[in-house]
Amino acid sequence: MSDKNRLRIAVQKSGRLSDDSIALLKAIGIKLQIRDRLLIAHSTNMPIDLLRVRDDDIPGLVMDGVVDLGFIGENELEEKMLERQASSKPSNFITLRRLDYGGCRLSLAVPSEMDYEGVASLQNKKVATTYPYLLERFFKENGVNAKAVMLTGSVEVAPRAGVADAICDLVSTGATLEANGLVEKDVIFKSKAALIQRADGELDDEKRALINRLVPRIDGVMQAKE
Ligand code: PRT
Ligand code: ZN
């Protein structure tokens, strides 16, 4: 059983944000014993428990108040917020800090042979993505009627497979797009990792005091790297 008085922090179990998030927690003085298979890791020097989950679950865990803090990519956070708003689920959270890792952009990309003169060229087309809410918001803002086709993986092969005309996916170096004959056209969202907190009213004084001690240490660690 986990102790309700301990600060609960959600981190990605294994993926692009895991190592940097754990390294940051260690750098601010939290001693952790992480066993690979286990969902929970207890700190040995502070009243803190880590919950190690898929990144997709982290926004909901924070917004439902199951955990107090979470490390999450802003792309995933914004997508889940829009999804929860659409189904009237709680979607409140506080961004404590934008962090210095996990940088990427969510971009529209099209096959190199396609004529593209701006997002209007996607009118009545299908666009494969893992981020349908962010993509549909962008289409709406730009007055374009196009269809977001949800794929949780292999988005970059969708045009070649005849599943979609274009894609909207995360890009960092651009190598994946290039390898798949796709050209990046419009950036629709810029993202970094962020540290988020559940809605403030729900935190007891001891947890709030602990958070207030930890956050300046994060600033210190980030400044030292600059
Ligand atoms: O298993 P779990 O659900 O937890 O992990 P996941 O597979 O959903 O996520 P993961 O670990 O791949 O990414 C976690 C977060 O890292 C993302 O939500 C982003 O906030 C951030 N991030 C930063 C990235 C990238 N850079 C990135 N390049 N996430 C994914 N990519 C992928 C992209 O989808 C594409 O397939 O990398 C490929 C493109 O990279 P380049 O360098 O070829 O452009
Ligand atoms: Zn995920």
Would you kindly provide a written description of the structure presented here, covering whatever features stand out?
Residues 54-219 form the ATP phosphoribosyltransferase catalytic domain. Pathway: Amino-acid biosynthesis; L-histidine biosynthesis; L-histidine from 5-phospho-alpha-D-ribose 1-diphosphate: step 1/9. Its cofactor is Mg(2+). By secondary structure, the chain is α/β, with parallel strands linked by helices. It folds into two domains: 7-102 and 192-225, Periplasmic binding protein-like II (D-Maltodextrin-Binding Protein, domain 2), CATH 3.40.190.10; 104-190, Periplasmic binding protein-like II (D-Maltodextrin-Binding Protein, domain 2, 3-Layer(aba) Sandwich). The protein is built from six helices and eleven strands. The strands form two sheets. The protein has a six-stranded mixed β-sheet with strand order 2-3-1-4-11-5. A five-stranded mixed β-sheet has the order 8-7-9-6-10. Strand 2 and strand 3 (48-53) form a beta hairpin. Phosphoribosyl ATP binds at residues 12, 15-17, 54-56, 73, 75-76, 102, 104, 169-176, 191.
Tally of helical segments: 6
Distance between the termini: 40 Å
Which cofactors or ions or other ligands sit in this model? phosphoribosyl ATP, zinc ion
CATH architecture of the largest domain: 3-Layer(aba) Sandwich
Highest CATH level, the class of the largest domain = Alpha Beta
Overall geometric form: elongated
Q: Report the biggest beta sheet as strand number plus sense, adding barrel if it closes.
A: 6 strands, mixed
Secondary structural class: alpha/beta
Rg on CA atoms, Å: 19 Å
Average pLDDT reading: 96
Strand-residue proportion: 25-35%
Keywords: Amino-acid biosynthesis, ATP-binding, Cytoplasm, Glycosyltransferase, Histidine biosynthesis, Magnesium, Metal-binding, Nucleotide-binding, Transferase
Protein name: ATP phosphoribosyltransferase
Subcellular location: Cytoplasm
Family: Belongs to the ATP phosphoribosyltransferase family. Long subfamily.
